[in-house]
Write a structure and sequence with these properties.
Shape: globular
Distance between the termini: 55 Å
Number of helices: 11
Order of helices and strands: HEHEHHEHHEHHEHHEEH
Radius of gyration: 21 Å
Structural class: alpha/beta
Strand order of the largest sheet: 5-4-6-7
Largest sheet: 4 strands, parallel
Number of strands: 7
């Protein structure tokens, strides 16, 4: 009888199940408000695919955005590159099999992290280009920081993919940038700023924009599709969806 009970007890035990996901490292904290969105969206995406109690296999290095913002504004991209490379290496050492940078602006340093870690990196602009082309659009508005709206590391990548890119005028770019840095990145979401962004989008629509890229990971916290007369491409949501594909794919990027 004892043997039978032991045998029955053994049959009730379940074999430990190991995750079939890959491990993704996220360089976050730029700002933490948008990294929080990444964490929620990626976990929601994995749960939608796998069901039950499944969640995402993630490693997150959340950096201190204060000194990073100062380095951005003073143009010390060499120091910023060292910080991003250090973060990428820490994630690699912790077991990340791929990396994403949870910031549009910091993709200026994408190649630095890629070469230093030799891991697959999920580029936010490439994922966004795929989403735009899936809707057969060719003329796109771009909102983001001054760096993202004007510098080649981002804008030229869109152009090289065959897209015509429209950006706001100088004064409007300055205000779009200010709102990001002084409001959105510290968790302030003002109706007056939302209305300003809406007016900018409408003006770019009148110039022929067929869609608008929310090219800063915080803008999606302020602007939604309901605010725009043209399709909105929220880079945070798009990047998070690409992260889910990476986590659940056996073949890589």
């Amino acid at each position: 009888m004892t043997n039978q009970n032991q045998q029955h007890s053994s049959s009730q035990q379940t074999t430990p199940q190991h995750s079939t996901q890959r491990t993704l490292g996220i360089i976050g904290g730029m700002s933490w408000e948008s990294t929080e969105s990444y964490y929620r969206l990626i976990n929601e995406g994995v749960k939608a695919k796998l069901g039950g109690l499944h969640s995402a296999d993630l490693l997150i290095h959340s950096v201190d955005f204060g000194p990073i913002n100062t380095l951005q504004e003073t143009g010390d991209w060499e120091a910023l590159g060292s910080l991003m490379v250090s973060s990428g290496k820490r994630l690699q050492a912790a077991g990340a099999q791929g990396i994403m940078i949870a910031s549009n602006t910091m993709h200026k340093l994408f190649d630095d992290v890629q070469s230093a870690t030799d891991l697959p990196l999920i580029h936010i602009a490439d994922a966004t280009i795929d989403a735009i082309k899936a809707q057969n659009l060719s003329k796109i508005a771009l909102l983001g920081t001054q760096f993202t709206m004007t510098q080649d590391f981002y804008k030229q990548r869109l152009i090289d993919a065959g897209l015509q890119v429209l950006i706001p005028a100088d004064d409007e770019r300055a205000e779009v940038h200010r709102v990001i840095k002084e409001e959105l990145c510290v968790g302030e979401f003002k109706d007056s700023s939302r209305e300003y962004y809406i007016d900018v989008i409408k003006e770019l629509t009148e110039q022929g924009a067929e869609g608008v890229i929310l090219g800063c990971t915080e803008i999606g916290l302020l602007i939604t599709q309901a605010d725009s007369p043209i399709p909105v491409f929220d880079t945070t949501a798009i990047h998070a969806a690409a992260a889910v594909d990476f986590l659940l794919s056996d073949t890589g990027l």
